[in-house]
Specification:
Length: 219
Amino acid sequence: MIFFLDTANLDELREAASWGVVSGVTTNPSLVAREGKVDFGSHIRAVTEIVDGPVSVEVLSMETGPMIEEARSLVPISPNVVIKIPMTPAGMGAVKVLSSEGVAVNVTLIFTPQQALLAAAAGAAYVSPFVGRLDDIGEDGVGVVGDIAQVFSMQDIGTKVLAASIRHPAHVVQCALAGADVATVPFKVLKQLFHHPLTDKGIEKFLADWEGYNKNHGR
Ligand code: E4P
């Protein structure tokens, strides 16, 4: 399983990119809106210049034709742009046309394996099941990721399972065990993944022992 960063914040992207573990980015209208007044196209271009990998950018139109037009206007921003389209009948019509043109599409707001199968049938490159939002309503988000991964594997479907709406480090491991191809994680969760008190304690001890050795040997 590889990691994408779920943010539109350039500082977070720069810092996380320097850690060497981020293979792509997902944005959505809420995340871009959080960045305040930005020129949308330039902002997305800046994101693509920081992380060398797929960058999902969501369309805002709700009808098939306008979705396709919007997607076609976003694709030239960078060869790494992946078009994010919501799971609706109109959306799947757009996925069919765009995927036949060679555009990579990430179908977002997936909450069931049935929806994932429809997205794959339309030609999606990625499906994004929203783990945290399912948990929020008392359902089993990780279970849905596992069911989708299992069905795709049994049916030999090449669409990638991109676990989204990740809320904490345990979700990351659970999604990996469930067979997700990608986890898109918020900056805060990515940072949490690095830490363990025994790692910090171990580093402190190694450095202290080395300092003691140098003192004892007059260095
Ligand atoms: C995925 O692509 C979405 O941007 C994101 O993971 C949604 O997460 P949320 O439920 O925390 O808003």
